[in-house]
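User: My instructor asked us to take a sequence, write out its structure as tokens, and then describe one feature of it. I'm not sure where to start. Here is the sequence I was given:
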Amino acid sequence: MRNRIPLRLTRVSIGAALLACAPLSLAQPTWGNPSPTAGSETSQKANAAADQTIYRPVEYVNAKRKGPALVVIPGEIKSNNASFLQKFTANNIADFGEIELSSANFQVLERSNLGPLLKEFELAYNLGDPAQARKFLGMGKLKATKYVVKFDILKTEQVASAQSGFDGRTLGQMAGLLGVFSGSRGGAAAGTVGGTAVGSVHSGESTSVWVIGMRYKIIDAETTEQVAQGYTEEKMEIGATSSGALGVNQSQQGGVSLDTMVQRLVQKSVWEIDSKYK
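Assistant: Let's start with the prediction itself. The structure tokens for your sequence are:
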């Protein structure tokens, strides 16, 4: 008679196999790098610089304590910098605020629950109109709102820049002239070769530093009175280098982006809110 495997053992074996495979299926997804320069020297340098701008979560000191219910409304951008205004809107900054306040264990209520009334809701708090504000707080999940929080950009300005470099063309011309004046054909040829070599050498670097400032405000949801506010600034440095000799050139540029700077400012602000006002 053919041996039969008991049904119970079969189920156990299948279950064990699934458990063995579980770590593989639950692992974070990974992606390859299709760049033709992947692994090269330039790739390593560029990736090393990019690693400095990768998002890093903040360990908020009171994250284990649940915070009150709040709504983040788009703040004001008072900068006149065209590049910043093209890249950012107040909604972008409010989105960053919602992410970080949620990480700090505040009960963040969705602005989307207001739908088309969001602009009127913002206006009620910006004008300090408690009667109008209470009308919106009676809507659905917003009844639990204790605070309204906003993040304003008050400053984005380039405060410093510096440049330095070396250009070998002048020295190359001088070396060529010295070869000509040597009086010999060999000396002239050597001067020409040397002048070309020296003239091909060049290097340079430039750096610019920006200062970006952010203010946060915490507003009582019912009275529209300001409960607290704070201000923080961060420097943003952008740099570029280049060098070359005998036809071999190298260049590199990078720095923290505006996106990263805004998110870091929001993180600093939320850290203070979590530390002082939870």
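For the description part of your assignment, you could build on this observation: The chain has nine helices and six strands. Try explaining in your own words what that tells you about the chain.
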